[in-house]
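As a point of orientation, let us examine one representative protein, giving the amino acid sequence and backbone structure tokens.
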Amino acid sequence: MNEPNVIAPENYLTLLDWRRRIADIYGEVRARLRRDPIGVHTYWRDRRNDLFRTHPQSPLHVDVRAGFPGLRCFEYDARFAFTAKIRPLPEKCFAVDTSTGGKIPFVRFGVVDLPVGTLEVMWLDTYGGGVFLPFRDATSGRTTYGGGRYLLDTAKGADLGVRSDELVLDFNFAYHPSCVHDSTWTCPLAPLENRLAAPIDAGERMP
């Protein structure tokens, strides 16, 4: 008979600490973004570099953390910073493909109409839920990951906030899923419905 997997309590605690630190980073981003977008973008990148190098829950394999040169990012470009209302759509439950061949359930509940195109906004239908906004664009598979990047993932603390009744959608803070750094991670991929024709030369680039 197979015994159930036993995960050490300290692993749960380090995951909790990782999410707390990510939430703290995004809290600072929300506080400073309007008055100092370039400065807080540098802060976002540098703080995440520190976590990638030193934290037990880093997406990087443990053997490469110490020598990690840092996340590659485009320079901050205000042309890719937007706010938008969510245009409601009838809820649609569907499964999003993952990097390891599985599927994760989401609920599509609206779209945002941006100068660069339209993106569906999803609710993660597991854990405690959260807004999820992945995307692909003309850089995907070239200078960025072919499976897309994430703009919002509030279940994991990646939350740029709201202004009045509009989501803050600044592509300069777009980032790669963990599977880009280590293929053992399971990450949802951006569905084809969230493919933008324009190149989004903002946010993280491929390592």
